[in-house]
Amino acid sequence: MKDVFIFSGTTEGRSLASYLHGRGVPVHVRVATEYGAEVMEAYPGIDVGVGSCGGAEGIARMISENGYGIVVDATHPYATRISQHIREGCESAGATLVRIGRSESSMAHDSDLVEVGSVEEAVEYLSDKEGRILSTTGSNEVDLYTRLDGYRDRVVARVLSTPQSVERCAEFGFSGPNLICGQGPFSEEATYAALKDCGAKYMVTKDSGDLGGFNDKIRAARRAGVTVIVVRRPSDEGIPYPEAVSMLEDLLGLEHGDVSEPVAPRRSVALVGIGVGKGCMTVRASRVVDGADILIGAPRMLEAVEVAGRPTLNEYKASEIVSFLDANPGYSSAVVLLSGDVGFYSGAKKLLEALDRERYDVRVECGISSLVYLASRMETSWQDAHLVSAHGREANLVGLSRIHGKLFTLLSGEETVHDMCRDLIEYDMDVRVTVGQDFGYPTEKLVSGKPSEILEHSFGNLCVAMIENPCPDRRYPVSIPDEEFTRGDAPMTKSEVRALSVAKLKLTDDSIVYDVGAGTGSVSIEMALCAVNGKVYAIEREDVAADLIEVNKRRFKTPNLEVVRGLAPAAMADLPAPTHAFIGGSSGNLKDIVRCLLEKNPDVRMVINSVTLETMAETSEVISELGLIEEEITNINVSRARKLGRYHLMAAQNPVYIAVVRGR
Fold it and tell me: How far is CA 617 from CA 94, 245, 582, 583, 626, in A?
């Protein structure tokens, strides 16, 4: 099958390339700008090149060298020079040329429009007129407007949002309030807003057809009371899109498919990670930003990029961003700027869930995360680091750094840095901390040392840290030997029973757990070590026992354990809903305790331990009366060896009943 070479840059060209590629035709596309190539990325598998090919001779050479027998000219109706070069190149190389024409707009010759033959004639018409002018004729002929007296105060140019367009406009004095950058087609509302914002009395435009948004521009101008000057279409020998497709199918020997006029592409939304600061965006991300017609993000994000006269929206909430885009269809190529990398504690997650893929083409561009940047500054690896965020959220940095050799955390400002260090000191953590501040900004700095040394420094508002523990404790945290706990007269669940009870709870690392009647806190400690990203509430009415729990809490480095002094269920009233509960002592209030747990979370999973037959009977009664789902009831009898001379005698411990139940 013959290859087809398409000169594109229009909706028709993209639609044709996608249609032929889908039917198995080898398609090669040429576009004029990098932005045109970025747009073609929405059509994977199609070969795309950038540039003009070097005039008619260059086009002929490319056709001959690659053996392209069929060439399609799908360039813009006003791109007469490139169309002439394509025609001459095809004639020289002996290739078949198919030129796709675009129908004139239905409003192109309305009586209230001023028709001229060129942009030069439009400028001549305006030379003796007063009032501001919105030019929508592109950057290639923007120099012609410099012929108007006081053009810097009179003319506002709306051009393609590419570096080339912006640079050309700046060369002739169009920048700041005299420049609007975007990617069409623009909606009626967007054009109306531009006309009103610049106080235009005249608008100069070209008949870009219905696909190019011409009719929307005319309607907007009429609403704003603006006179429209239309540059007439050059003569075009092109044929309508469906006819061109039919001709190509005949040339390629394909059966005729169901082809209709192409429609304007869906609006695009790009989620771009800007990296760790100014100048740290990837080349791809920068190109996407350059092609946007609106930039969205928090102030710090917007300050990190070149706005270049484009509209901006100061917003970071996903719901507000989506609402704005839905209400402003004139923005066809929006970029949402996000800090660091889009996949690392980023707002991109909620945005990706909120954006309707039927309405928007969504793309994601990664950025350099603060994690990667910090590791490079430290000259260390990051693949072996555990990642967490303490930026605007609670994180068990002590517990996590206890079990990980490297712990990276996002922080906020100085207060969070100092709080982290004070916690590490309180729990006697022998670690080294490296804090990075304001990456990518002039105030960037790196400070390393023991937590006490870090406390001597001041920090800004954007901080991260790496905590390095040379001896992390990676032991499985269940069935800790009884003698490792600080003990008093308070009762303690023995190691074997504790191990089975905690295992039966089936905790996750983020569980919210109650330990009712916590005693010395041995079960609380093991649950806190298991649920390192969760929270354990040790509820104990005896102050002596509660004091012991506090001692063991520091000994085992479990700041995610909170001691609640009081009698259950009253002491549970203000606690968050539990996912799990261990009941080791109820003081005769078992039914009320379980009822309270169910009210907080009907799905709560419970392990109830009983040492006496009376308590086991009470447990059975509660299971029945409250309609609990009984998973299992186990009786465990443990004997431990005791040395007597050269012999070992088995000493029995009290048997314990372990009931595993849940709400529903």
Answer: 98, 83, 18, 15, 14
Q: Rounded distance, CA 488 to CA 522, Å?
A: 12
In angstroms, the Cα distances linking 347 to 283, 296, 307, 316, 318 are: 22, 12, 21, 8, 7
> For residue range 177-224, what is the model confidence (pLDDT) as tens digits?
899 987 777 777 778 888 998 999 999 999 987 767 788 899 899 999
Structural domains of the chain in order of their starting residue, each with its CATH number: 4-102+237-252 (3.40.50.720), 114-231 (3.40.50.720), 267-368 (3.40.1010.10), 371-468 (3.30.950.10), 482-662 (3.40.50.150)
Any bridge partners for residue 406, and if so which? Answer: 468
Contact indicator for 204, 136 with CB cutoff of 8 Å? yes
Q: Which helix (H) or strand (E) holds 336?
A: strand 333-338
Instruction: Report the predicted TM-score, pTM, of the whole model to 2 decimal places.
Output: 0.65
Evaluated on CA atoms 464, 414, 432, 448, the torsion sign reads: positive
Residues 6+ apart with CB under 8 A from 455: 418, 421, 422, 425
Beta bridge partners of 656: 636
601: tokens are 């979370």
Indicate the average pLDDT of the chain: 91
**Pairing mode, strands 561-565 and 406-410:** unpaired
Cα gap 341→372, rounded to integer Å:
10
Question: Tell me, what DSSP letter sits at residue 437?
Answer: E
Structure token digits, residue 476:
């499985």
308-357: per-residue pLDDT in tens? Answer: 777 899 999 999 999 998 888 767 789 999 999 999 999 999 999 999 88
In the structure encoding, which two tokens stand for residue 530, read together?
A: 């298991």
Could you tell me if 442 and 421 are in contact, meaning their C-beta atoms sit under 8 angstroms apart? no
Q: How confident is the model at residue 1 (pLDDT cuts 50, 70, 90)?
A: low
Q: In angstroms, how far is CA 447 from the centroid of its own chain?
A: 29
| Cα separations in angstroms, 196 against 27, 156, 193, 201, 600 | 44, 12, 5, 9, 56
